Amino acid sequence: MRIELVRVTHKRTRAWQLFLRTLTLPILAALTPSSIEVKITDERTESIDYESDADLIGLTFLTADAHRA
């Protein structure tokens, strides 16, 4: 099984937001059994793969970015 966890953000990210770390995705990845492949994508630093073949995709975002999610 493959899981992709995505941190969604607004396209106009301000420089200070790059330093705003959230622990949601790393904690979820750490709690996932080792038999499951987990990929974390942070839209602030890389593009979202809309053709992902993951079995499950989870999203997280700040309230200010909810319209984007």
Helix content: 10-25%
The overall strand count is: 3
Secondary-structure element order, N to C:
EHEE
User: Rg, please?
Assistant: 12 Å
The figure for the number of domains is: 1
- Mean of residue pLDDT values: 84
Major β-sheet, in short?
A: 3 strands, parallel
Number of helices: 1
- SSE-based structural type: alpha/beta
Q: Kindly report how far apart the N and C termini lie.
A: 24 Å
Low-pLDDT stretches are none
What global shape is seen?
Answer: globular
Strand and helix layout:
Blueprint: E1 2-7, H1 24-31, E2 37-42, E3 56-60
Parallel strand pairs: 1-2, 1-3
Q: In a nutshell, what does this entry contain?
A:
With 69 residues, the protein is α/β, with parallel strands linked by helices. It is built from one helix and three strands. It has one domain (2-65).
Keywords, separated by commas or semicolons:
69 residues, alpha/beta, three-stranded parallel beta sheet, 1 helix, 3 strands, globular
Task: Describe the structure in your own words.
The chain has 69 residues and is an alpha/beta fold. The chain has one domain. The protein has one helix and three strands. It has one helix at 24-31; strands at 2-7, 37-42, 56-60. The chain has a three-stranded parallel β-sheet, with helices on one face. The longest helix has 8 residues, at 24-31. The two termini are 24 Å apart. The model has no long low-confidence stretch (mean pLDDT 84).
